[in-house]
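Recap from last week: sequence in, structure out.
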Amino acid sequence: MAFTKIYDIEQTPPFRKALPLSFQHVFAMFGATILVPLLTGFDPSVTLFTSGLGTLVFHLVNKGKVPAYLGSSFAFIAPIIAAAKAYGAQGALTGMMAAGVVYALFFAIIAVAGLNWINRVLPTVVVGPVVMIIGLSLTPTAIQEAEKGLLTAFVTAGIVIVASVFGRGFIKIIPILLGTVGGYLFAITQGQVNFAAINKASWLALPNLSILTGHLPVFTWGAVSLIAPIAIASIVEDVGHLLVIGDTVDRDLMHDPGLHRVLLGNGLATIVAAFLGGVPETTYGENIGVLAITRVFSARVVQGAAVIAILLSFVQKFGAAVQTIPEPVLGGITIILYGMIASVGLRNLVEAKVNLANNRNLLIVSVIFTLGVGGILIKFGQYAFAGVGPAAVIGILLNLVLPKDKEADAPASQ
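Predicted structure tokens:
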């Protein structure tokens, strides 16, 4: 059953409502989007700029039919660090651009061969659990952040819950924003906010885009071989996200605008981001959670968030201010959002009536859960793959190899 719509994809809320609704998406994606460049040694302001630009490219390719925000992909963290260490940051940028090319290759294959093979390779019995472990695998981060100030985290999460359940009118559709602001104000009373970074930052400054600094990508096969293959795991994640968004907005997005367009949009966004000095991008589960909570599906709202991200990349004081949001506040928000991602994956299984009384289906789901949540690490020579990627690939292989019977396709209620 789809969520009740407040604003549908093609609808545009009035500006007084659209602005805070867009800011909700900015707050939802900001922490994770900025974390990836911080971990990999790239510029957070550049990444903020390229996430906004990449999202606009994605919406252009998909004709504004997929209300998704594109942020930094966690799947690429380890290979980016390895490539940057071995071949330098400019070499790593080439590897990231190559990942975007892999997306484009999948676009071409699907455009020619259609989606039938996708439905066979990625049925709900695989995609549902993968989406669930995407949320579940992120929960340790939420708990670690929350534990640094449990009272602040609980107050933040409590504001989100109260606004979502008991709010009326406009209050009901901006719970994430209210929770972030309310949690931040409470954190100030607890002495958990350090304003030093805000005082040191200038007001306006150009992001250090590679075309401005002269640090353009430098081609090296080694960096390409390290980073490009990870795109496959990210593509599986995109398929799961697209199905979840489709369920949320009650649209068959796999066919209209089509998975091939989604992958092309993501690939072009990643190529543009890497060329400018940013990191690879992917559709963001955090923002899917915002769609589910607010029931505002407007593509214009998400596009507004992209424009805000671009503008904010020029405002150093804002970037510094957002980075002063204490971890317990982020923990309180992500407890809700990451749990929502997992719950939506579960809903996908339930609505597709996947029969878990069948041993074949049960084994596939169980293996994906264990490997994904457990964070399995698989090594092939110098390459290492961990967590969601290997779990998804092994789940796909099990689905293809294990014999299928009529009982496996029978609805769970039978």
